[in-house]
């Protein structure tokens, strides 16, 4: 067993909160709302990844700004989000079958990913593609 695996192995048993890890819920910090969307990263849970729906960005919290809103009641503004959080255990994603082996290059998901994802990780390749697009 490598040293890296030994180091992280001690964290495998820390599963407090596991019952909501798979919930599609808002995470709130004061007036900031970001959505935890584990259904968009199913492979991290060992499941098959289906083509995800567009990310959740509810209109009532998407472009909130604090400018000039000193007197606003944030509990009222964020009430739909707070209600969703209150029922967080009801919003658990439905697991897909386990992912066995690698995804084939012509699988539905990989075809979608190539259309929507960024294909370049290597900085040199990114520079080349930018230069080609600029010409």
Can you walk me through this structure?
It is a single chain. This protein is mainly alpha-helical and 135 residues long. The chain has two domains: 3-101, no CATH class; 102-135, no CATH class. It contains seven helices and two strands; from the N terminus they run H-H-E-E-H-H-H-H-H. It has helices at 3-9, 18-21, 59-62, 74-77, 79-86, 108-116, 123-134, and strands at residues 25-29, 32-36. Strands 1-2 form a two-stranded antiparallel ribbon. The longest helix has 12 residues, at 123-134. It starts with a helix and ends with a helix. It comes from Cajanus cajan. Pfam families: PMD. This is Serine/threonine protein phosphatase 7 long form isogeny.
Total number of domains: 2
Tally of DSSP helical segments: 7
Question: How would you characterize the largest beta sheet?
Answer: 2 strands, antiparallel
| C-alpha-based Rg, rounded | 20 Å
Q: Which outline best applies?
A: extended
Question: Topology of this structure?
Answer:
Layout: H1 3-9, H2 18-21, E1 25-29, E2 32-36, H3 59-62, H4 74-77, H5 79-86, H6 108-116, H7 123-134
Give a short summary of the structure.
With 135 residues, the chain is mostly helical.
Key traits:
single chain, 2 strands, two-stranded antiparallel ribbon, 7 helices, 36% helix, 2 domains, mainly alpha, 135 residues
């Amino acid at each position: 067993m490598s040293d890296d695996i030994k180091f992280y192995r001690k964290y495998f048993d820390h599963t407090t909160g596991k019952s909501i890890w798979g919930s599609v819920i808002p995470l709130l910090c004061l007036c900031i709302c970001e959505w935890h969307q584990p259904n968009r990263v199913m492979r991290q849970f060992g499941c098959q990844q289906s083509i995800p729906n567009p990310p959740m960005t509810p209109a009532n919290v998407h472009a909130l700004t604090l400018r000039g809103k000193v007197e606003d009641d944030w509990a009222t503004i964020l009430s739909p989000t707070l209600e969703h959080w209150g029922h967080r255990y009801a919003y658990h994603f439905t697991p897909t079958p386990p992912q066995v082996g690698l995804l084939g290059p012509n699988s539905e998901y990989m075809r979608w990913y190539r259309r929507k994802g960024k294909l370049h990780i290597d900085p040199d390749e990114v520079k080349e593609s930018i230069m080609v697009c600029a010409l």
